[in-house]
Amino acid sequence: MRRIVCLFAAVLFGGTNLFAVDVQVELPSSPKPKAGQSPQPQQQATPVAQGTSTPPPATTPRATTTPQAANTSPAIPEETPRYRPALLGTGPNSLINRINTQALMAKGQKDGSLMFCCSVRATGELVSAWAYRQTPDSTLLEEELMRRLNGTAFIPAIYNYKTVPVLFFGTLTFSIVNEKPRLRIFANQEAEELKKESDFISPQPFIGKESKFEGLHYPDDTSRVPIQGLVELAMNIDADGNLKDLQIVSENPPLIGFRRAAAEDFRVAKFIPAFRDGKPIECKITLPVCYPPE
Question: Is residue 213 part of a domain?
Answer without folding.
Answer: yes
